[in-house]
Amino acid sequence: MKIFVLLPRIPYPLEKGDKLRAFNQIKQLAKHNEIVVCALNDSNKVSEQDAFRALQPYCLSINFIKTSKAQILAGLVWAFVKGLPMQCGYFYNRKAVKKIDALIAKHKPDMLYCQLLRTAEYIRRKSLPKAIDYQDIFSYGMKRRANIASFVTRPIYAMEYRRLKRYEAAIFDDFDIRTIISEPDRALFPHEKRNEILIIPNGVDHNYFKPQECEKKYDLVFTGNMSYPPNVNAVEYLANEIMPIVWKTSPETTLYIAGATPDPRVKKAASERIIVSGWLDDIRTAYAQSRVFIAPMRIGTGLQNKLLEAMSMHLPAITSPLANASLGAKPGEEILIGSNAEEMARHIITLLNYPPKAKQIAQAGFDFTNRVYDWGKATERLEEAMCECIRSKR
Q1: What is the 3-class SS of 343-364, one letter each residue?
Q2: Distance (Å, rounded) from C-alpha 242 to C-alpha 188?
Q3: pLDDT for res 27
Q4: What is the DSSP string of 61-74?
Q5: Domains of the chain
Q6: Whether 17 contacts 25, CB under 8 Å
Q7: Is this model's pTM higher than 0.85 or not?
Q8: Fewer CB near the last or first residue (10 Å), C or N of the chain?
């Protein structure tokens, strides 16, 4: 079949979770199908040439639609007036509508597939078979952000939460196939037919993220896009609450914060014992040079790719109940879970001071990710659903 894939961002480089998911799904779907990619581009920092080269082996056609600041502003005003989520408005403009309609008319795809509700407005009313990857439960993630926001910004987040919740449910019946990453996200979905949503988990490239022998320069590592609010929140939690407890017992313990575009609050956390890297050409070096991986997530939704990557590289991992709810690893066996700063600190001290325990958790976590998380197997479920949908409409 021919699949038209519509994305809110160019899926390269792979520094963000939605890009990673889109790129790997395209790569897997391309094995048996023709892929037409259309991606919006709001950034001057993305090299369209590099992205084109990365996608070219898998795509019949690659199309990037540049969006200007004026178009983004107009889209935000449009969404505000219409009562739609601001995230929809940010990615919506009339110029893109015309280009997307023209591409669909030209390529005559069998299936339309849009990633995230950010792009739903472009295809929700099309008569062709169509699928949406909700990916995460955006509304609930916004609710968590509202709960910890300042007095000034809390009303803004609360408004967006309400709009997202309405919109997630409103577009449900417009699509033939709806997918989401994890069962916890589906359980929170604001629609009575939520069980019809297919769970399509992420995977990890085990041939790429594999154990490496390397000198250990850091005790702990936390990775990710460091402008993403849940990651910024996790860095502040580490720097202000967790590490001070660790340093009372082990004052020499170091923490490596590795990831693109660090927020000013992340940069502020830097010290002699907390190293902030910024962009890395190869994130694997951050994992390989560290003894323990920690992801103390308190807000956000969905599956944390950083956990899959670290565990696939044979690092013992520590995380929160929130993050492990989507991951599904066995607490105390395949991963260590900390519900508060004291528990997180205790786990850090245990793994750093007792190598046999660290080795046991690392091996069990490695076996778990290799057994459960695979891009090929996950995308097969999506492909089967698309084929069945097309057959049912003939």
Answers
A1: HHHHHHHHHHHCHHHHHHHHHH
A2: 29
A3: 97
A4: EEEEEE--HHHHHH
A5: 2-203+374-392 (3.40.50.2000), 218-372 (3.40.50.2000)
A6: no
A7: yes
A8: C
Burial grade of 265 (CB within 10 A; 0-12, 13-18, 19 or more): middle
Return the structure tokens found at 326: 């989507």
Beta partners for residue 142, in sequence order: none
How far, rounded to the nearest angstrom, does the alpha carbon of residue 327 sit from its chain's CA centroid? Answer: 13
Residues 22, 267, 306, 33, Cα dihedral to 10°:
10
Residue 360 carries which side chain, given as an amino acid letter?
Answer: Q
pLDDT under 50 in the chain at which residues? none
pLDDT digits (tens, 9 = 90+) for 275-317: 999 889 899 999 999 999 999 999 877 788 999 999 999 999 9
Nearest to 345 by CA among 215, 230, 255: 255
DSSP 227: T
Query: What's the sign of the alpha-carbon dihedral 103, 107, 111, 113?
Result: negative
Query: Smallest Cα–Cα separation from 361: which of 371, 350, 372, 374?
Result: 350
Question: In this structure, what token pair is assigned to residue 90?
Answer: 């940010």
3-state secondary structure 272-319: CCEEECCCCCCCHHHHHCEEEEEECCCCCCCCCHHHHHHHHCCCCEEE
Indicate the residue type of 137.
Answer: I
Give the Cα separation of 356 and 387 in Å (integer): 48
Cβ contact 286:220 at 8 Å: no
CA distance 210 to 239: 29
Query: In whole angstroms, what is the distance from residue 358 CA to residue 210 CA?
Result: 17
